[in-house]
C-alpha cells in the first residue's frame, strides 16, 4: 500500500480484488475492528474478533498490527485486544461536538493517508482564532513536531489555520500578534494576510511553513465533516527540508473526497 512512487488514495471499491459491499476493503475492515472493540464489554481475542467481524484471522492479524502500532488498539498480555486511547483523546478535545461523534468514521481514512504518505497526518479545527489539531498520526521520526501540535495556537501561524480562516468569512484578516492596531507595519501585515487568504480560497489548498512550530511545514485541504457539519482542515505535515510535500496534494484531495462521500452515506 505504501511502497512505490506516485501513490494516491483509492477508495475501497476502486481497489482490484476488493469487495465494494459493506465489510470489504481495508478501510471498512479497520472500521469493523474498531467498532467491534468499542462495543465489547471486555477485551477480545483474535478468534472473538474473527467471529464478530467475519474476517479471517490472517487478515485481522495484519490489521491489528497496524492499529496497535498507531495506538488505536492495545494488545493485552493475555493476547487479547481492546480499544486504545486515541479515540478517547479525540472525543475529549475541545473541537466541535459534531466531530466527536464522527471519530470512528474518519479514523480509517486518517490511517490510510498516513500509510500512503508516512508523514504527520491530523485534522485541524478552528476554535475562535486558534487552531486545534486532533487525531494526529505520526512516525518515530516526527515525534517532536507532532507533540508540539497537541496544544492550540494562533490560526494565522499555520497553513491549516490560514485555510480555515479563509473558509470563515466572519474572521477578520488582521490576526497578527498585537491585533489590527494602527501602525504602518501592522496594516501591511493585515494586507498580506488578506491576500494570502484570497489565494487559498482560489486554490483550495494551503501550503506554508509553521510560524509557531520551528521546522514544520504543512499542506492542508478543507473537509466538510458530514451534512451540516463543521469544516476542518485535513493536514499532512513534514520537516521543512522535505521538498516533496506538495506532491501529496493529490492523495490529500482524494482522501478529502473519500471522507466527505462516506459521511454523506446514511447510517
TrEMBL record:
GO-annotated molecular function: DNA binding; DNA-binding transcription factor activity
Superkingdom of origin: Bacteria
Domain HTH iclR-type as annotated: residue spans: 24-85
GO biological process, one term: negative regulation of DNA-templated transcription
InterPro entries noted in UniProt: ArsR-like_HTH, GAF-like_dom_sf, HTH_MetabolicPath_Reg, Tscrpt_reg_IclR_C, Tscrpt_reg_IclR_N, WH-like_DNA-bd_sf, WH_DNA-bd_sf
UniProt cross-references to Gene3D superfamilies, sorted A to Z: 3.30.450.40, Winged helix-like DNA-binding domain superfamily/Winged helix DNA-binding domain
Domain IclR-ED, residue spans: 79-267
Region (Disordered): 1-26
Chain coiled-coil ranges: none
Keywords: DNA-binding, Transcription, Transcription regulation
PANTHER family in the cross-refs: HELIX-TURN-HELIX TRANSCRIPTIONAL REGULATOR, ICLR FAMILY, HTH-TYPE TRANSCRIPTIONAL REGULATOR RV1719
Protein name, per record: DNA-binding transcriptional regulator, IclR family
Amino acid at each position: 500500500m505504501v511502497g512505490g512512487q506516485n501513490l494516491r488514495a483509492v477508495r475501497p471499491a476502486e481497489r482490484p480484488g476488493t469487495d465494494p459491499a459493506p465489510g470489504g476493503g481495508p478501510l471498512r475492515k479497520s472500521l469493523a475492528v474498531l467498532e467491534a472493540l468499542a462495543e465489547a464489554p471486555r477485551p477480545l481475542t483474535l478468534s472473538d474478533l474473527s467471529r464478530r467481524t467475519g474476517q479471517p484471522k490472517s487478515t485481522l492479524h495484519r490489521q491489528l498490527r497496524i492499529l496497535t502500532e498507531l495506538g488505536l488498539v492495545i494488545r493485552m498480555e493475555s493476547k487479547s485486544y481492546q480499544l486504545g486511547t486515541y479515540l478517547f483523546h479525540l472525543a475529549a478535545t475541545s473541537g466541535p461536538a459534531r466531530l466527536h461523534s464522527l471519530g470512528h468514521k474518519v479514523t480509517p481514512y486518517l490511517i490510510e493517508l498516513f500509510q500512503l504518505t508516512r508523514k504527520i497526518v491530523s485534522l485541524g479545527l478552528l476554535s475562535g482564532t486558534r487552531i486545534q489539531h486532533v487525531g494526529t498520526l505520526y512516525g518515530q521520526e516526527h515525534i517532536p513536531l507532532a507533540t508540539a501540535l497537541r496544544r492550540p495556537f494562533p490560526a494565522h501561524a499555520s497553513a491549516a489555520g490560514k485555510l480555515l480562516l479563509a473558509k470563515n468569512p466572519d474572521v477578520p484578516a488582521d490576526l497578527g500578534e498585537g491585533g489590527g492596531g494602527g501602525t504602518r507595519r501592522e496594516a501591511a501585515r493585515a494586507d498580506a494576510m488578506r491576500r494570502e487568504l484570497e489565494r487559498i480560497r482560489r486554490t483550495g489548498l494551503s501550503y506554508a511553513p509553521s510560524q509557531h512550530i520551528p521546522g514544520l511545514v504543512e499542506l492542508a485541504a478543507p473537509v466538510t465533516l458530514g451534512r451540516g457539519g463543521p469544516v476542518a482542515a485535513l493536514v499532512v505535515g513534514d520537516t521543512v527540508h522535505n521538498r516533496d510535500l506538495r506532491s501529496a496534494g493529490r492523495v490529500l484531495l482524494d482522501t478529502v473526497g473519500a471522507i466527505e462521500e462516506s459521511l454523506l452515506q446514511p447510517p
